Amino acid sequence: NASFPRRVSVYLYRHPAQRLLLLLAPGLLWLLVVYIGSLGSMLAYSFWRLEEFTGLIERTFTFDTYEQLWQPANRDIILRTAGMAAAVSVTCAVLAFPLAYYIARYATPRMKTVLYLVIIMPLWSSYLVRALATRQALTQEGVLYWTLEWLGLDGVLRTFLQLPVVGGPSVIKSYVGLFVAFVYLWLPFMVLPVEAGLERVPRSFTEASSDLGAHPWTT
User: Fold this and answer.
1) How far apart are CA 168 and CA 6, in angstroms?
2) 145 contacts 139 by C-beta, under 8 angstroms
3) What are the pLDDT digits (tens) for 32-44?
4) Do 57 and 45 meet the contact criterion of CB atoms below 8 Å apart?
5) What is the pTM of this model?
6) Which CB contacts under 8 angstroms, 24+ apart, belong to 88-96?
7) Tell me: the pLDDT tens digits for 74-93?
8) Contact call for residues 156 and 149 (beta carbons, < 8 A)
9) How much is the mean pLDDT over the chain?
């Protein structure tokens, strides 16, 4: 029994992967417990009922919450949310890939540092601060309206806002304003992973593709 800790220490010394797993286990276990616990509590709440008058939760099993998802108002919200998420994701991918490819393949070390700083700098402020800053830029007193009036294009903006789907009383209250804000907020999170993935692709792969006759777009 006295030699058991010694055998364990020798085993961990000879197996660094197990030693690393043992060191990471407490933190990972804590995160897993909190994550699963949070999801479990949300799942439990979804089968309870909310009293409309008092706002208190009645802990009686019911499917009322799931039945409300199929109401026309909630269905429209789900469709609008999914559509906005898809549009923002596609736009971020289209904007992020050329920038990430340039950083990974062509940028000099100094230029790469500058571009990293430009991409990461917005993340130094909180999500709420960036959202409010975007809102201020898109208001009628913001820099967007001021620039368009200075260029004499404010009429074009008013015509655009009269469109039935994307328009609204102002840019900030239209789907376009939300779209621009979400793309600004999430674009760094698309550029950085794509750039990291491109960094791991050996240059010999692209050279071999070119030697075998593949077009650059195909590569």
Assistant:
1) 72
2) yes
3) 888 888 898 889 8
4) yes
5) 0.70
6) 88/179, 88/182, 88/183, 88/186, 91/179, 91/183, 92/183, 92/186, 92/187, 92/189, 92/190, 93/190, 93/194, 95/183, 95/187, 95/190, 96/187, 96/190, 96/191, 96/194
7) 888 999 899 999 999 999 99
8) no
9) 84
Instruction: Identify the burial level of 75 via C-beta atoms within 10 angstroms of its C-beta, where 0-12 means exposed, 13-18 middle and 19 or more buried.
Output: exposed
Q: Residue 52, SS3?
A: coil
Helix axes 72-105, 175-199, angle to 10 degrees: 40
- Smallest CA-to-CA distance from 172 within 198, 203, 137 is with 137
* Distance from C-alpha of 195 to C-alpha of 103, rounded to nearest angstrom: 7
Q: Are 115 and 107 in contact (CB under 8 A)?
A: yes
Model confidence pLDDT, tens digit, residues 169-205? 777 778 888 888 899 999 999 999 999 999 888 888 8
Residues in the chain: 219
